[in-house]
Amino acid sequence: MEDKRNIQIIEWEHLDKKKFYVFGVAMTMMIRVSVYPFTLIRTRLQVQKGKSLYHGTFDAFIKILRADGVTGLYRGFLVNTFTLISGQCYVTTYELTRKFVADYSQSNTVKSLVAGGSASLVAQSITVPIDVVSQHLMMQRKGEKTGRFQVRGTPEGQGVVAFGQTKDIIRQILRADGLRGFYRGYVASLLTYIPNSAVWWPFYHFYAGLPWWRSG
């Protein structure tokens, strides 16, 4: 037996908004907690000179644990969680833009192209400044300067609390580069994510509209 079917396209008006935002944030947070240590390790490996600090991923993981404990693998995590806002803004912008464009065109390709590009523009405008701050926090190591900026400790020699570190990094970025310092790599991010999103969604809806067969 063959069952010919199309994949249903879910539009903005079909969504249960409460479930969508609550479950979306919860699921993204769970994923973020599990992968963040490797994001931190990747950032340090990319920035270090040669193999001056770490010889690889496993070596970095062990050395960070020994030096700073588990919390060392989550430096900048609290700040980075604010990128969850950009994820929700991305989907909201995408759906609302599709709804707006639908007044002028019923083509899924046109709606997806415009909405995908617009969603990435909004998301990256929020994400890039957060990433800049969180990446500087990722580079903080006890007693060593591994990035452009270094968080100052308390007079007793202990590190300042998480959001105190964030304020310190923000002040140093402002002092060194002004507001533009929070948007380093912004154009490169737009040139990466806008075309990707603008092309991905039309292909998604194209394939969703194709007839598929499954054997019973």
From TrEMBL:
Residues annotated as transmembrane: 20-41, 181-203
Mode of membrane association: Multi-pass membrane protein
Main location: membrane
PROSITE patterns from the UniProt entry: SOLCAR
Keywords recorded for this protein, A-Z: Membrane, Transmembrane, Transmembrane helix, Transport
Organism: Balaenoptera acutorostrata
Identification of the protein by name: Solute carrier family 25 member 44 isoform X4
Subcellular location: Membrane
Family membership: Belongs to the mitochondrial carrier (TC 2.A.29) family.
Pfam families associated with the record: Mito_carr
Renumbered ranges of Solcar repeats: 18-100, 107-210
SUPFAM superfamilies noted in UniProt: Mitochondrial carrier
